[in-house]
From TrEMBL:
EC numbers on record: 6.1.1.2
Cellular component aspect of the GO annotation: cytosol
Chain ranges for the short sequence motif 'KMSKS' region as given in the UniProt record: 203-207
Organism lineage string: Bacteria, Pseudomonadati, Pseudomonadota, Alphaproteobacteria, Hyphomicrobiales
Name of the protein in question: Tryptophan--tRNA ligase
Organism, scientific name: Blastochloris sulfoviridis
């Protein structure tokens, strides 16, 4: 069977980039794959988090998953720290991955900044924990935004080295084609890299100092509409064809967002709005974004009003995840030679 795994960090609000780059695809894949969706709280603490804020963020991200359409009956929905095998397998992968591989990770360089000596060891080893998340479920497909591509390459490198390093033991255990699969990234749709609404050369992110740079899934209708209307653009009208968007990153971003939210192609969006006033397009985008996101926001609030419900979903999901995780970890221990 084809298995999907993906996750998001509970470090503040989810935004439109998380939604269009990942969550929308997660929801779709529930119909065709066996899916495991995680709130990666152990990844969150690679940078210091306020403990009380972290707890509520875990519940909020879970509520956003459910409001966006993840069905906890179809999919496994849980938070990472509840399944101890993530940490166990991550340790084994720390011993498989090479320093040179981790030294190349651009996300570490960005997040550690100039004061690298002072970054946590966890932030450095982050990609090994991510490989463990995915391979614990021997997932074949991982739907993510463009920015996670390098981490998924590392996941494949870890799987391949593990399969090679322990080939005789893996074959003896009856796995003819290697123990871990070569996981494929699923990076699809017109919004795999949603940019800041203030600067078309920067990714939309939780950490941007300006709240006007992003649309949060917790924003109400007024905030959403205002952020779209204030989004940076150039003075030209929209082109009628995609090649006219070259070099116009802000316009390209807004058209991509429109296409993704309306589930239409960029071509179709430009055929409708090309040549017209930018303000006309922005009004249409504001209406569309409100229509799509405001109900999600209302659902999240409703779900969070009963924290017992969200906690119940996570508990049940963790129990189901543990069954798969324990089986994988038993095999890994046998293969590596750890006595259990
Ligand atoms: P995180 O929490 O930064 O982001 C969650 C998901 O949202 C996508 N994303 C975006 N997509 C398009 N445009 C953007 N501006 C944008 N910003 C974020 C991300 O690509 C991601 O899919 N390392 C991961 C979490 C993780 C994980 C995993 C993912 C831990 N273990 C296992 C997949 C599989 C992260 O920090 O995502």
């Amino acid at each position: 069977a084809q298995r999907v795994f993906s996750g998001m960090q509970p470090t503040g609000n989810l935004h439109l980039g998380n939604y269009l780059g990942a969550l929308v695809n997660w929801v779709k894949m529930q119909d065709t794959h066996d899916c495991v969706y995680c709130v990666v709280d152990m990844h969150a603490i690679t940078m210091w988090q306020d403990p009380a804020a972290l707890k509520s963020a875990i519940r909020e991200v879970t509520a956003a998953y459910l409001a966006a359409g993840l069905d906890p009956k179809k999919s496994i929905v849980f938070n990472q720290s509840k399944v101890a095998e993530h940490a166990e397998l991550a340790w084994v992968f720390n011993c498989v991955a090479r320093l040179g591989w981790l030294n190349r990770m651009t996300q570490f360089k960005e997040k550690a900044g100039k004061d690298r000596e002072n970054a946590s060891v966890g932030l450095y080893a982050y990609p090994c924990l991510m490989a463990a998340d995915i391979l614990l479920y021997r997932a074949t497909h991982v739907p993510v935004g463009e920015d996670q591509k390098q981490h998924l390459e590392l996941t494949r490198d870890v799987a391949q080295k593990f399969n090679n390093d322990f080939r005789p033991q893996i074959e003896a255990a009856g796995f003819a084609d290697g123990f871990f699969p070569m996981t494929e990234p699923v990076i699809q749709g017109p919004a795999t890299r949603v940019m800041s609404l203030r600067d078309g050369s920067k990714k939309m992110s939780k950490s941007d100092a300006s709240d006007y740079a992003r649309i949060n899934l917790t924003d109400d209708a007024d905030a959403i509409a205002q952020k779209v209307r204030k989004a940076k653009t150039d003075p030209e009208p929209l082109p009628s064809e995609p090649k006219g968007l070259e070099g116009r990153s802000e316009a390209e971003n807004l058209v991509g967002i429109y296409a993704a939210l309306s589930e239409r192609s960029v071509e179709a969006v430009l055929a409708e709005f090309g040549g017209g006033q930018f303000s006309t397009f922005k009004n249409a985008l504001a209406d569309l974004a409100v229509a799509k996101l405001a109900p999600l926001n209302a659902d999240m609030r409703r779900l969070l009003a009963d924290p017992g419900f969200v906690d119940g979903v996570l508990k049940d999901g963790a129990e189901r995840a543990r069954v798969i995780a324990a089986e994988t970890m038993n095999h890994v221990k046998d293969i590596v030679g750890l006595l259990r």
